[in-house]
Amino acid sequence: MQTFTGIMLFVIIWWMVFFTVLPWGNRAVENPEPGHAASAPAKPRLWLKIAVTTGIAAVLFVVARLVIDSGLIQLGT
Question: Cα-atom radius of gyration of the chain, to the nearest Å?
C-alpha cells in the first residue's frame, strides 16, 4: 500500500468512527437559554471523543492494512 493510499484510508476510517462516536454520552440541557437549541448537548466532551475516535480508528486501520497487505482485498490494479 502506498503512503497516500494509507493516509486516505485512515482519514476515511477516522471520520466514519467519529460520526459513530459523536452521540455517545450526550445529554440535552434541561432548561436551555432562549435562542439555544433544546437538543444541544450540555457537555459535548469533543476532545475525549476525538481521542477515542483516534484509538479506534488506529486499530481498524491496522486490521484493514493487514487484510489489504495479505492479498485478500486488492486496491486498484
Answer: 18
Only one residue has cell 492494512, namely 65
DSSP 33: P
| Residue 58 CA: distances (Å) to CA of 2, 7, 20, 43, 52 | 17, 11, 15, 26, 10
Q: How far apart are CA 3 and CA 25, in angstroms?
A: 35
Q: Which residues pair with 28 in a beta bridge?
A: 41
Report the DSSP beta bridge partners of residue 41.
28
Distance CA 7, CA 51 (A): 18
Question: How does pLDDT run across 46-68, given as a tens digit for each residue?
Answer: 999 999 999 999 999 999 999 98
Domain assignments of the chain as residue spans, ordered by start? 3-27+38-70
Instruction: Tell me the C-alpha distance between 3 and 9, whole Å.
Output: 10
